[in-house]
Amino acid sequence: MASLPEIQAMKRALELAFLGRKAAFPNPMVGAVILDSSGNIVGEGFHEKCGAPHAEIAALSEAGAAASSGTIVVSLEPCCHYGRTGPCTDAIISAGIRRVVIAMRDPHPNVSGKGITQLESSGIEVETNVLFDEAESLNRVYLHYLRTSRSWITLKMALSIDGRTAAKDGSSRWLSCEESRKHVHRMRGSVQAVMTGGGTVRDDDPRLTSRGSDDPGEQQPARIIVSATGDLGNSRKIFENPGRVIIAVPENVAGSLQKFQSEFGADVWEFPADFSGYGFNLTLLLERTASEGFGEILCECGRGLATMLLRKQLVNTLSVFTTPMILGGEGLPAFEELGIDSMDDSIKLENVRSSLLGTDTHLEGELVYRID
Amino acid sequence: MASLPEIQAMKRALELAFLGRKAAFPNPMVGAVILDSSGNIVGEGFHEKCGAPHAEIAALSEAGAAASSGTIVVSLEPCCHYGRTGPCTDAIISAGIRRVVIAMRDPHPNVSGKGITQLESSGIEVETNVLFDEAESLNRVYLHYLRTSRSWITLKMALSIDGRTAAKDGSSRWLSCEESRKHVHRMRGSVQAVMTGGGTVRDDDPRLTSRGSDDPGEQQPARIIVSATGDLGNSRKIFENPGRVIIAVPENVAGSLQKFQSEFGADVWEFPADFSGYGFNLTLLLERTASEGFGEILCECGRGLATMLLRKQLVNTLSVFTTPMILGGEGLPAFEELGIDSMDDSIKLENVRSSLLGTDTHLEGELVYRID
């Protein structure tokens, strides 16, 4: 059993871990707290970014000699292998730590219980699964990446109560209230990349940057444009604003994008043409985005891309802003056909969060697909 | 300015008024509190039902001689005309009341400021518009009836996040969670009548009674079946359960309903056939329901009747239970075409209330239609 001070220290470790949310990926976010033998906090640390010290090393370094005979409380199982940094288990053993409290095992094949075994075989007491659910939720992007090698997709939508994205004539300004629009800017500021479809870029010429932050040095998310045709019309804003822009297209259409490469320095990613999907296989795209360091991607797109992502079961979180408004059966629907024939096939949301944002309702949850 | 004890007394008067919610209609709900000259509550009353004493009379009767030189705090302007009971203004003047605090004027043509004038001309101090918004909201059914001669329609819907009422194959069990279904039973228990369409009765054979109440003597709402064809199939449950059942049809189809009249004692209301609507003019139906004492009607119906009620601007409150589930573009839509071409034509909700019910979100608001 973890003691009350240890549980408090774990809450702090989870908070510290979250500070790595923008740069830790593809590593997990990890936080660590050192308690001395009297239970006082003598060191804290978190994993800031790939290549930087692990949370345990940062916390041990802050604690110094005070760590001896103490306890380390850490949000993920310490590593036991040589990566870019030495194994944390060695550092914990050398520091004279007596007890290790861990929120969850690291499922990474190089760790996966071996860290715990190594600590225990050195005579250290190990307690696991302390605030497990919180730790699992915190690292959902990392855990998803270990399982699938893909980026985590959060699909954002603005809908009327009757599930319409726009009126019959295509107008949708303003389907969301000001508070909702501000919240979307904060969401953009918390992810590594924002994704949209070529049609949205062509028709709306959006910026998709995070605006209205209090932080003047805020780094803009990369923008990823997914296009089956390579036709981005005369769009400019998405390229002119700060931050990397990537255009993902089937290989047969990349030629038409030279002006965006030469004029704006956009990257063009080509994928084998595949007409069963969105011009190419979106799974390949999300593997590439993950390998280039985009852990979570906020997708703000039209019906076509949203439908294809759902059909391929590639959406992980759905984030819906519902406006108290009716647009009728003639309004444009949220999705095209998804292959849902009966209630049994429906896509369900779990871990649902709901809140009021101005006059809108904001609902988020993780998608649970029917297992085929 | 009203004093703090007077405002507190008005809150109490509004609570008292609400006790009349099931039987006061077509009269308003009214509550009254008498404060003696030291500000102590010496009498309380409310209007229980049509024909029973008015709130002021009940409160004055409880206060007796203590009302002299006191204040009456009442949620609606006292009447000054002879109806089924004598004018309240006379009783207030006779009781020696010095000051009258009123939440809102009664827009009824027989009152409409004349009560206030009569009190003032007797030398009584009158303060109005104390907790006006609360009083207006409390009596929205009465005020709507004065303006339109119609019943107030609350349209209840259960939807997926993407605004679908059922999956492609028509299945919808269970689109709402258990807590939402319990809440619907409480809603049925709080209205005088529940309305549904003939198709729902034919296909689902529902009871539409209020079940699960703690009150064993609970009175069941009347059930009103609206049918363009008179074809109710082999439905039985809606007729077999306690409470009045009314079948509203165009006059040309009433013949087929004799078995429901003779076997179950159902009432059949015939209206002139009108093929521009739902077989007949629904406005006439809602005038008849109001004249028969149904102030608020909870409508639990299919897409056809819901669409027609919205097109005719007859829905007053929309009450939506949204389940965290996606049913896709092939799911059955909430409404058919409503004649909404652009965002300007959208039907908006005001006074929005939102809450979590189990895993569902419950959203209610009053509809604001575009003025043609």
Describe, in plain words, how this protein is organized in 3D.
The structure is a homodimer of 372-residue chains. With 372 residues, chain A is of the alpha/beta class. Chain A has helices spanning 4-18, 55-63, 88-94, 114-121, 132-138, 140-148, 178-189, 198-204, 237-240, 258-264, 282-291, 303-311; strands at 31-35, 41-46, 71-74, 99-102, 125-127, 152-160, 164-166, 193-197, 222-226, 245-250, 267-271, 273-274, 279-280, 296-299, 317-323, 325-326, 332-333, 347-357, 360-368. Chain A folds into two domains: 4-139, Cytidine Deaminase, domain 2 (3-Layer(aba) Sandwich); 149-368, Dihydrofolate Reductase, subunit A (3-Layer(aba) Sandwich), CATH 3.40.430.10. Helices cover 28% and strands 25% of the residues of chain A. In chain A, strands 11-10-9-8-14-6-15-19-18 form a nine-stranded mixed sheet, sandwiched between helices. A five-stranded mixed sheet of chain A has the order 2-1-3-4-5, sandwiched between helices. In chain A, strands 7-17 form a two-stranded antiparallel ribbon. In chain A, α10 (258-264) links the parallel β10 and β11 (267-271). The longest helix of chain A has 15 residues, at 4-18. The first copy, chain A, is elongated and about 70 Å long. Chain A starts with a helix and ends with a strand. In chain A, 50% of the residues are buried. The model of chain A has no long low-confidence stretch (mean pLDDT 93). At the A-B interface, β15, β16, β18 and β19 of A face β15, β16, β18 and β19 of B. β18 (347-357) of chain A pairs antiparallel with β16 (325-326) of chain B.
